[in-house]
Amino acid sequence: MFLFKSVPSITNKELQELLAKKIELIDVREKHEFAGGHILGAKNIPLQQISSYKGKGPVYVICQSGMRSKQATSHLVGKGIDAYNVKGGMMQWQGAVKGGK
């Protein structure tokens, strides 16, 4: 039995290309982390609240390093949602960020 199953993932570069389209991007960091800087258009749903997500996907999930977003993506995929983890998270993000809510 595998403790850490693989989840669908994309790179930060792939996310940057996808942002040219209108996509659903969820940032699962805590509210204060999100306020400190996030990708424009991202929706903040902290990891503890991810079960409240009602979308169908595709949805892209990011956090600070990629660990929380991997957990959230696994949860969403388990609910039948077309979800993708952003590997490396905000630590590897090189695009523009917006501060505040």
From TrEMBL:
<dbReference type="InterPro" id="IPR001763">
    <property type="entry name" value="Rhodanese-like_dom"/>
</dbReference>
<dbReference type="InterPro" id="IPR036873">
    <property type="entry name" value="Rhodanese-like_dom_sf"/>
</dbReference>
<feature type="domain" description="Rhodanese">
    <location>
        <begin position="19"/>
        <end position="98"/>
    </location>
</feature>
<dbReference type="InterPro" id="IPR050229">
    <property type="entry name" value="GlpE_sulfurtransferase"/>
</dbReference>
<protein>
    <submittedName>
        <fullName>Rhodanese-like domain-containing protein</fullName>
    </submittedName>
</protein>
<dbReference type="Pfam" id="PF00581">
    <property type="entry name" value="Rhodanese"/>
</dbReference>
